[in-house]
Amino acid sequence: QLQLVESGGxxxxxxxxxxxxxxxxxxxxxxxxxxxxxxxxxKEREGVSCISNSGGSTNYADSVKGRFTIxxxxxxxxxxxxxxxxxxxxxxxxxxxxxxxxxxxxxMAAGLxxxxxxxxxxxxxx
Length: 126
Fold this sequence. Notes:
The protein has strands spanning 3-7, 10-12, 18-25, 32-39, 46-51, 58-60, 68-73, 78-83, 92-100, 115-116, 120-124. With 126 residues, it is mostly beta strands. The strands form two sheets. Strands 2, 4, 5, 6, 9, 10 and 11 form a seven-stranded mixed beta sheet that branches. Strands 1-3-8-7 form a four-stranded antiparallel beta sheet, with no helix packed on it. β7 and β8 (78-83) form a beta hairpin.
C-alpha cells in the first residue's frame, strides 16, 4: 500500500521553528517530486514548497521564501520541511504529496500530485 505520513507538526510561538517530515512507505521516492501544501481555516489550499526527485531543484511560495527549507533523504525515503521564523499566518494543516516525474523538476500545482498524506497541524500562536 502506497502511503505518505507527515509528522512534526505542533504548537509553536511566533518566531519559533518546526521541522516537518514526510515518510513514504510502499514505494520509493526516488522517482517522485515531493510538494508541501497547506490549508488554513477558511482558505484554499496553497503550495508551500516542492523538491525534485534528485533534490537538485526546489521552489518556494513567496510567503515562505527565506524562512522555509525543503530537503530530502532518498536513502531514508523521507522529505523534510524546515520552518523557521514562523508567523501566525503559517497556521494551517500541512500536507505532503508525491508526483511521479520523468524529469528532475518540481512544480507546485496540486493537480500534478497523485499521492497525498493525511496532514499535520501547525499552529503558530503566543
